[in-house]
Amino acid sequence: MSKFIYLVLSLVVVSISCYKYVYAYQDVESTNSRRHSIMAKCAHKFGVTDNDLRTALRSGDVDVIDPCFWSCCFKGTGVLNKEGLYDLEATLPLIKLTFRDDDYKEVQEIAKLCETVNNEIVNNGDAGCERAAMLVSCFLDGGSNRHFY
């Protein structure tokens, strides 16, 4: 699985595969454990299987999964705040634990571009469901033309 899809999976709290770096090995381990726990709770709550998640991310059709699943995962890690807005400052450390050097810079750029989801009008406000689905789509779209695939 590509490193970029791993980023999206990290953001939705799944650790299917990971590139662990010596400089942050313990942080990566504890963060991945926490992410997996949050993802498992959200998956159970919304009836999302690992296969559902992989299929949605590989196809780019994130709408096949209940958008509140994405919100549950993102709120659990702080990627979305309690108001249902994308929190770039909380997201960057997750990216830093997953990517290094040039890859980090590129993913950081995508993360910054995706901050525009906060400007979109959504119907569910602080629940963040629609915004979370938009955020996953934004990350997938941003990475599709880069070397992560």
TrEMBL record:
Record key words, sorted: Signal
InterPro entries for the chain: PBP/GOBP, PBP_GOBP_sf
Extent of the signal sequence: 1-24
Gene Ontology molecular function terms on file: odorant binding
Pfam families cross-referenced by the UniProt entry: PBP_GOBP (PF01395)
Listed PROSITE patterns: PROKAR_LIPOPROTEIN
Taxonomic superkingdom: Eukaryota
Protein name, UniProt field: Uncharacterized protein
Organism: Spodoptera littoralis
